[in-house]
Amino acid sequence: MKRWQGMTLAALPVVLGLVFIIGVFANWFPIQTGRSTEATASGSGSGGSSGPVDTSDPGAQIFSQSCASCHGANLEGQTGPKLLGIGSKMNEAQLVEYINDPKPVAGYPPIMPPKGGLQSDDQVKQVAAWLAKQK
Ligand code: HEC
User: Fold this and answer.
1) Are 62 and 101 contained in the same domain?
2) Would 70 disulfide with which of 33, 77, 79, 102, CB 3.0-4.6 Å?
3) What is the CATH number of the domain that holds 84?
4) Is 66 in the pocket of ligand 1 (CB under 6 A)?
5) Structure letter (DSSP) for residue 115
6) How many domains does the chain have?
7) From the CB of 86, is ligand 1 less than 6 Å away?
């Protein structure tokens, strides 16, 4: 009897290990199949995601990601001034200069970050080019 109990105790980690491994495999397979369907779904659908503004232009995409939170998804203004028609007020070069080094605008808190929070000059250029077309 004593010996049998000892055997059971010795077998316990093995049994638990097996249960664990079976559990891991049982979970692993659905996750794998789930991932592969997800990958094909997002692969075919990646071109179709549309933001609030015209997303065919990279500048528009940068705007909706980095500027819309303050200037509104449709340039209507929020924390920052509205940018509707900004293209008739500033040209692309002036926009690049402004975005790189924002100047205070009456009636708004001076909170626009340098580069509008963007990382690269390329992005500033693209968003400025797009804004310059918003007349
Ligand atoms: C944290 C909020 C915030 C973000 C993010 C932000 N802005 Fe601004 N923006 C402002 C504020 C506030 C002003 C008014 C100037 C000031 O005092 O900072 C402003 C002013 C401007 C102006 C001048 C408007 C005018 O009528 O003269 C332009 C152009 C502009 N922002 C473009 C952008 C672009 C492009 C981005 C994204 C790359 C951006 N902003 C990101 C808050 C923001």
Assistant:
1) yes
2) 79
3) 1.10.760.10
4) yes
5) G
6) 2
7) yes
